[in-house]
Specification:
Layout: H1 3-69, H2 74-77, H3 89-112, H4 114-117, H5 120-155, H6 159-165
Helix pairs in contact: 1-3, 1-5
Length: about 190
């Protein structure tokens, strides 16, 4: 073999090495990105858990205050106490709906009793619930943003190739019913 032949083999070897390393880096980068996004979704899902738990606690406190003013609507208001955390996305959407309904019922009761509406504790709890609602909305937006980034990553090239190899599937968005989107806690 001549020096020219050996030089060509070395150059081809270097080119092949660079191509293989580039592909390996792209694969590892996309694999890690998919896994990081999946973890981010789990983290933001936990944020929804925290917000729902806080909402539950505040609504439970509101029920306790309202209960003192009216005994006959106790059953309606105590639905809030049945709601717990540690659920799937679908279960959280159902719980969110139930808490929205309970919150509306509490506000209807407050409207019927002017002395209750003027109560300092009720006003403080209503403000806390409003703050909690805003936190919950932010948690939902962050979760849905994370799901969007993840879903985009696993359906676009080269992420889709890697996603298929590791059986990564699209995640569901947290949905809120149309009539619940504009609901505000009465102050």
């Amino acid at each position: 073999m001549s020096i020219l032949g050996i030089s060509c083999i070395i150059v081809l070897g270097i080119i092949l090495f660079i191509v293989v390393m580039t592909l390996l880096i792209i694969y590892i980068s996309n694999y890690n990105s998919i896994n990081r996004l999946s973890i981010k979704i789990d983290e933001t899902f936990s944020g929804i858990d925290v917000a729902l738990a806080k909402r539950y606690d505040l609504l439970s406190q509101m029920v306790a205050v309202v209960k003192g003013y009216m005994k006959h609507e106790k059953e309606t208001l105590l639905e809030v106490i049945k709601i717990r955390k540690g659920m799937s996305l679908e279960e959280k959407e159902i719980v969110n709906k139930k808490m929205d309904e309970s919150s509306k019922k509490i506000n209807i009761v407050i409207e019927r009793y002017p002395e209750l509406k003027a109560d300092k504790n009720v006003m403080i709890l209503q403000k806390a619930i409003l703050d909690c609602e805003e936190h919950l909305q932010a948690a939902r937006r962050l979760y849905n943003s994370s799901v969007s980034q993840y879903n985009q990553k696993i359906v676009t090239f080269p992420g889709n190739v890697i996603a298929k190899k590791i059986n990564a599937t699209k995640r569901e968005f947290f949905k809120v019913e149309e009539e619940k989107k504009d609901y505000k806690v009465d102050m």
